[in-house]
Amino acid sequence: MPNHSRVTRRLGLKAALAAAVTAPLSSTALSASSASAGERPARRRLQAMSFNLRFASTTEPNSWAVRRPVMRELLRQEAPHVIGTQEGVFSQLLDIDSDLGPHYDWVGTGRLHGSSDESMAIFYDSRRVRPTAYDHFWLSDTPNTIGSNTWGAAFARMVTWVRFRDLADGGREFYVLNTHFDHVSQYARERSASLIAQRIAGFDRALPVVVTGDFNVAAHKNTVYDTLLGAGLVDTWDSAPERSALYATFHGYKPLTPNGDRIDWILSTPGVTAHRAAINTFSDGGQFPSDHLPVQAFLSLG
């Protein structure tokens, strides 16, 4: 059974679930007059983002105090419906929650199940989606043991997943699974990929799945990627007919690398259609919001 403990801005998840409805947000959001028969209009596409936030730090340059206004501007400008984040610590997540505004909420807990450690928090726009279930598991031989690390990773690594109801798509339900693989151990990354594939296979197979994460290996260049695609997942960057320019998604506050490695991915089950994929290079006066670039996908769930 899902473990319903979490760190979040509000404790009212039960109230939120009780308020979840299958009615559309508005007639405008559901208008199909501009689309051909059977085609979902662009405004109904689900906007997903994966973003390694770079944990909040007071160290200059690139302290959180300096980066936060740039992060706020980027997120408000893009307004994703679902954001899978990595590395966020509790105070930082509260800042982002405040900056996103009252229509957003989030699900997450620290890697050691406390507020002081990094989280795999999933933010969501409650006007568009509502959670119906969620849980966390750890990337180890004992995935239900909080903070467990049996594969030699540098840190305990974990997954947060949420089952959502899409209020603008007739109440269609789908899963979002968010993670951050270890940066040191290839063995831990390989085992992590296998465990995630196993867990996804245990979800309701009638429902779409979207996977967001920092996988710490390059797409197309590692067995971790091969394992996840071999389990039936699709790389939305490859499947989208429209893409932004390609840059390495980790830049470390150095000049961007055109045609570099994508270590941050948005994957999905095959029934999900990716219309557009993007690597967002937003900065303000040379200041980036993180040492990673966020990746985005504009999706139809089926």
UniProtKB/TrEMBL annotation:
Endonuclease/exonuclease/phosphatase domain location is 49-292
Q: Which CDD domains match?
A: EEP-1
Q: Cross-referenced InterPro entries, in alphabetical order? A: CCR4/nocturin_mRNA_transcr, Endo/exonu/phosph_ase_sf, Endo/exonuclease/phosphatase, TAT_signal
Q: Which UniProt keywords apply?
A: Endonuclease, Hydrolase, Nuclease, Signal
What PANTHER family does the entry give?
A: CARBON CATABOLITE REPRESSOR PROTEIN 4, ENDONUCLEASE_EXONUCLEASE_PHOSPHATASE DOMAIN-CONTAINING PROTEIN
Source taxonomy = Bacteria, Bacillati, Actinomycetota, Actinomycetes, Kitasatosporales
UniProt-recorded name of the protein? Endonuclease/exonuclease/phosphatase family protein
| Pfam families per UniProt | Exo_endo_phos
SUPFAM superfamilies per UniProt: DNase I-like
Signal sequence annotation: 1-31
GO MF terms held by the record: 3'-5'-RNA exonuclease activity; endonuclease activity
